[in-house]
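Example for tutorial group B:
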């Protein structure tokens, strides 16, 4: 793959897929701005991967923290060429359970958070004629019981991305990646016990490593500007749903 000297902003870079994307892009020559709430994790990662990587504590549900992050990316890295909306939570539980706050948190983080980050970084992407990558999910195509709010958020992310594609291309490319099960800490945060057990068992049997998704993102970004991989669904081969 050809080396890049572009600047990528990655939300949710403190673990899992975001962390793997950060490492992969840095090995391809990118400078990265790592955004997440856990500053200790992104600071350690920034030191580890080097190449001028920056750790910025930010919460995608807090617009002021994203505005502050964008201003640092502009002044310290010269602006974003790539924004990767990866931050997300998957707090599955029956919709009829009492997990009202978690249902809202999924929509506020996975969908509205991505909208906020994109809106705030849009001028930088316009200036660089850059790329927007939205990490969606196979749950934007299938919706098992317990996934109502998660699927609503990811389905919403896909619809929003499709309209952005029409609005922003050809200046800014819009790509949606839909991973199947990936071995990360995503399901560790599920508080509904039965849902957590079910998800963990499933994940233990079928999940692919986060690196598989990072490689796909790096490949999509490395395509020439004349084409865009607008939507990529990546399941582990043994995953049926
Ligand atoms: P992880 O739990 O490992 O990573 C989630 C990341 O999101 C963390 O870095 C977390 O950082 C960050 N995050 C959560 N809430 C916020 C917030 N409010 N503001 C900023 N950052 C936040 O899981 P994955 O790596 O698996 O998940 C990454 C993305 O991939 C998510 O969008 C997920 O929906 C999607 N995905 C995952 C799949 C899987 O099977 N693992 C399958 C399909 C899609 P911190 O807590 O430090 O803020």
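The residue assignment follows.
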């Amino acid at each position: 793959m050809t080396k890049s000297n572009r600047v990528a902003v990655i939300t949710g870079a403190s673990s899992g897929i975001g962390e793997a994307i950060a490492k992969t892009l840095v090995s391809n020559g990118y400078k990265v701005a790592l955004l997440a709430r856990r500053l200790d994790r992104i600071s350690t990662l920034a030191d580890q991967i080097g190449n001028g990587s920056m750790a910025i504590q930010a919460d995608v549900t807090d617009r002021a923290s994203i505005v502050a992050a964008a201003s640092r990316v502009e002044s310290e890295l010269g602006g974003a060429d790539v924004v990767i909306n990866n931050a997300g939570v998957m707090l599955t539980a029956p919709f009829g359970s009492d997990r009202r706050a978690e249902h809202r948190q999924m929509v506020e983080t996975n969908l509205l958070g991505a909208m906020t980050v994109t809106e705030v970084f849009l001028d930088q992407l316009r200036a660089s004629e850059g790329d927007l990558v939205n990490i969606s999910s196979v749950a934007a195509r299938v919706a098992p019981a317990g996934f109502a709010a998660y699927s609503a958020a990811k389905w919403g992310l896909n619809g929003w991305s499709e309209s952005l594609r029409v609005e922003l291309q050809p200046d800014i490319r819009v790509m949606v990646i839909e991973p199947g099960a990936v071995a990360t800490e995503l399901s560790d945060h599920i508080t509904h016990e039965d849902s957590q057990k079910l998800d963990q068992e499933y994940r233990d049997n079928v999940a692919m490593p986060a690196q598989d998704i990072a490689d796909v993102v790096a490949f999509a970004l490395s395509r020439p500007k004349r084409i865009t991989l607008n939507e990529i669904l990546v399941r582990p081969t043994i995953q049926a749903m």
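The chain has one domain: 7-226. Compare this with the pattern of hydrophobic and polar residues in the output above.
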